């Protein structure tokens, strides 16, 4: 049971984010190895099973952690959040195209410019997140209409009623989870407070719908329920992982370093794909290779961040210093702290009030390394 907060952060949210980023890397690695015909169907099924957990949980927690900035003035809000996200998207979009070009793909400035309207398939999360923050800010006093409308878009996408590109579909589908995290933090965290009941109720139902739809026992439309169930299962499952200290510590570490992993891991996967001639020849690589590849991608991503910081290249993961100086003196809104009433099975967490809205005091940045 998690009863402490380190640096005003609910630890189980870091665990859930760590699990989500691991599943994201697992998914991208699965795609890479599948293209190389070096992935077994069983391993693909494992990755696919978590498809409605990894990103819904990721966006929900991003909304929870980013809720505090919605009370800032528009000028401060744009500088402290949206500009940073767009800067990272532009920078790593250029790096992604440069890597592809070095590996033989035909890319150019036009492809980079086009990515701002047609999101980069790898970095679309950053693109979508910048849009979600603006939407959440605009609709701060129209929370329920925004949630209902975004939920209708999620259902529409899940039912395959749109013909937009994949990245646009995903951006429309996941907006509701970010808004739910930003507007309904305490309600969402009910899955954490009553995690045993939540896990027992959500995970079997999630698994039942997933496999029943996959094997055509029920209509595919039932899968529209999976993302909501996935959020409950993901958040409550993070509490369960507290029972495994070594694993939980590793996931917390990943959860506090999601940005470095998310931005860089696909670049290493591209290099792997370009030098994959001998992979299929390794005995049973299709079964065990994915786990080695995931570990290597995560480790190399974290190592790159460490090297970049040691040589003064922090601008790879945050605004350059000359841009940061423009926002460093901006005052934060006043925060009034209280306490959640203690209970026999409740993690100890303070609450904060921002502009009349109470949310758990998870005051970390949305994606940044910890």
Brief characterization of the structure:
This protein is mainly alpha-helical. It has helices spanning about 10-35, 40-50, 55-65, 75-100, 110-115, 125-140, 145-160, 165-185, 185-190, 190-195, 195-215, 225-240, 245-255, 260-275, 285-310, 320-325; strands at about 335-340, 350-355, 355-360. The protein starts with 10 loop residues before the first helix and ends in a 10-residue tail after the last strand.
Structural shape: globular
How would you sum up the major sheet? 3 strands, antiparallel
- DSSP helix fraction: 55-70%
- Low-pLDDT runs of 5+ residues are 1-8, 329-370
Mean pLDDT: 83
CA(first)-CA(last) distance: 22 Å
Would you report the number of β strands?
3
Number of domains: 1
SS class: mainly alpha
Number of helices: 16
What strand line-up does the widest sheet have? 1-2-3
Order of helices and strands: HHHHHHHHHHHHHHHHEEE
Radius of gyration from CA coordinates: 20 Å
Percentage of β-strand residues: under 5%
Structure, described:
This protein has 370 residues and is mostly helical. The chain is globular, with a radius of gyration of 20 Å. The protein has a three-stranded antiparallel sheet, with no helix packed on it. The chain is 63% helix and 4% strand. It has helices at residues 11-35, 41-49, 54-66, 74-102, 109-114, 124-138, 143-158, 166-183, 185-188, 190-193, 195-214, 226-240, 245-255, 258-274, 285-310, 321-324, and strands spanning 336-339, 350-354, 357-360. It has one domain (11-360). Mean pLDDT is 83; it is low at 1-8 and 329-370. A hairpin with a 2-residue loop joins strand 2 (350-354) and strand 3 (357-360). It has 16 helices and three strands.
């Amino acid at each position: 049971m998690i009863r402490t907060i380190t640096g005003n952060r609910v630890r189980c949210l870091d665990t859930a984010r760590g699990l989500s980023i691991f599943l994201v890397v697992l998914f991208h690695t699965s795609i890479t190895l599948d293209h190389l015909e070096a992935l077994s169907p069983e391993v693909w099924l494992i990755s696919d099973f978590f498809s409605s957990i990894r990103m819904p949980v990721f966006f929900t927690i991003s909304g929870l952690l980013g809720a505090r900035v919605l009370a800032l003035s528009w000028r401060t809000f744009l500088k402290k959040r949206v500009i940073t996200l767009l800067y990272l998207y532009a920078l790593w979009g250029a790096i992604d195209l440069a890597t592809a070009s070095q590996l033989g793909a035909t890319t150019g400035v036009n492809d980079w410019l086009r990515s701002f309207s047609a999101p980069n398939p790898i970095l679309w999360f950053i693109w979508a997140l910048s849009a979600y923050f603006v939407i959440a800010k605009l609709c701060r006093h129209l929370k329920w209409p925004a949630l209902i409308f975004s939920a209708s878009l999620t259902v529409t996408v899940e039912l395959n009623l749109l013909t937009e590109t994949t990245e646009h579909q995903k951006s429309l589908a996941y907006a509701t989870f970010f808004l739910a995290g930003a507007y309904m933090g305490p309600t969402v965290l009910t899955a954490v407070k009553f995690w045993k009941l939540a896990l027992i109720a959500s995970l079997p139902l999630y698994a039942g719908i997933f496999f029943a739809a996959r094997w055509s026992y029920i209509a595919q439309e039932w899968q529209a329920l999976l993302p909501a169930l996935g959020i409950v299962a993901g958040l409550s499952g993070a509490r369960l992982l507290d029972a495994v200290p070594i694993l939980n510590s590793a996931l917390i570490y990943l959860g506090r370093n999601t940005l470095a992993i998310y931005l860089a891991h696909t670049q290493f996967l591209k290099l792997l794909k370009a030098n994959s001639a001998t992979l299929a020849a390794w005995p049973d690589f299709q079964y065990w290779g994915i786990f080695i590849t995931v570990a290597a991608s995560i480790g190399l991503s974290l190592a790159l961040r460490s090297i970049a910081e040691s040589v003064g290249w922090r601008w790879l993961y945050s605004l350059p210093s000359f841009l940061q100086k423009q926002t460093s003196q901006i005052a934060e809104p006043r925060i009034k702290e209280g306490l959640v009433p203690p209970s026999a099975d409740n993690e100890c967490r303070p609450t904060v009030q921002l502009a009349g809205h109470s949310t758990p005091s998870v005051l970390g940045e949305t994606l940044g390394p910890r």
